[in-house]
Amino acid sequence: MPASSRTPSDLLSAALRRGGAAPLVTSYDDATGERVELSATTLANWVAKTANLLQDEFDVGPGSTVAVALPVHWQTAAVLLGVWSCGAAVLDTAVEDDGRLDSADVVLAARDRLAPLEEQDPPGLMGLSLHPLGLGMTDYRGPARDFALEVRAHGDVFSPYVPADPDAPGLLAGGLQLTLGGLVAAAGELAGRLGIAAGDRLLVDERTAAEAGPVAWLLAPLAAGASLVLCRNAVVGALRSRAEAERVTATLGLRIEGFRELGRPA
């Protein structure tokens, strides 16, 4: 099937077919000691719940725009893929600022970014605690709805009311605009350019991933058939032992002697 006729949800479906029980996204945060590992099946479950929440509660579908103000994180992966499963476009505000929210139908933001967003009074504001166990925003009293509490009530299987159109908008990030099919095509092209191989296990630096965007840190590995080890607030001295323990085969944005660095000549 040509890349332009597929959407990002097809990349997750392919990962499930390759091996639903195998680790797909492993997320570390050295500031909190967090380690969370999701298989393709578990990630797909979160994606389905997220897509059902967006569709059932906010009528998100083709033509909708969902602003995502989240860091590189396993829950961000679920949110992005959930939006794309609905056939909607992601307005990516994760790198510099919160962008033009007047074009967004729903806004999903990390709790520490809610205060300035509340002043703008965007529609459909939801907050994410990013708790390692997926818990809610303890002691929060603002107007944002709590993603973690609401998403759990939704179904584990997602059926869109209107099938996603590969030619529909998929990503709006600064001056960049890509269709859903264009995201898949760009992911495949970038995977080839970086040298990501099927079966690779990639150690990904948070800062590099945030600057490069979700095509680089999420979709390109999925397109290539690779898995991810995401590192937030990385302690440099711990990276070699982590790479060895996680059986990492390549790195993105990190140089560790003895490991292949994506995008650099061998």
Summed up:
With 266 residues, this protein is α/β, with parallel strands linked by helices.
Strand order of the largest sheet: 7-6-5-3-4-8-9
Poorly predicted runs of 5 or more residues = none
N-end to C-end Cα span: 31 Å
Strand content: 15-25%
Largest sheet, in brief, is: 7 strands, mixed
Looking at CATH, which topology would you report? Rossmann fold
CATH superfamily membership: ANL, N-terminal domain
CATH class descriptor: Alpha Beta
Indicate the overall shape. globular
Mean pLDDT: 92
Q: What is the N-to-C order of secondary-structure elements (H for helix, E for strand)?
A: HEEHEHEEHEEHEEHEHHEHEE
The helical percent reads: 25-40%
Number of helical regions: 9
Number of strands: 13
Output the radius of gyration: 17 Å
User: Class by helix and strand content?
Assistant: alpha/beta
Explain what the structure shows.
The protein is an alpha/beta fold. The protein has one domain (3-261): Rossmann fold (3-Layer(aba) Sandwich), CATH 3.40.50.12780. It is 36% helix and 22% strand. The chain contains 9 helices and 13 strands. The chain has helices at 8-19, 40-58, 74-85, 114-120, 147-151, 180-194, 206-212, 214-224, 239-245; strands at residues 23-29, 34-39, 65-69, 89-92, 106-110, 125-128, 145-146, 169-173, 176-179, 201-205, 227-232, 250-252, 260-261. It has a 7-stranded mixed beta sheet with strand order 7-6-5-3-4-8-9, with helices on both faces. A 6-stranded mixed beta sheet has the order 2-1-11-10-12-13. Helix 3 links the parallel strand 3 (65-69) and strand 4. Helix 2 packs across helix 3 (74-85) and helix 6 crosses helix 8 (214-224). The longest helix is centred in the N-terminal third of the chain and has 19 residues, at 40-58. It starts with 7 loop residues before the first helix and ends in a 5-residue tail after the last strand. The model has no long low-confidence stretch (mean pLDDT 92).
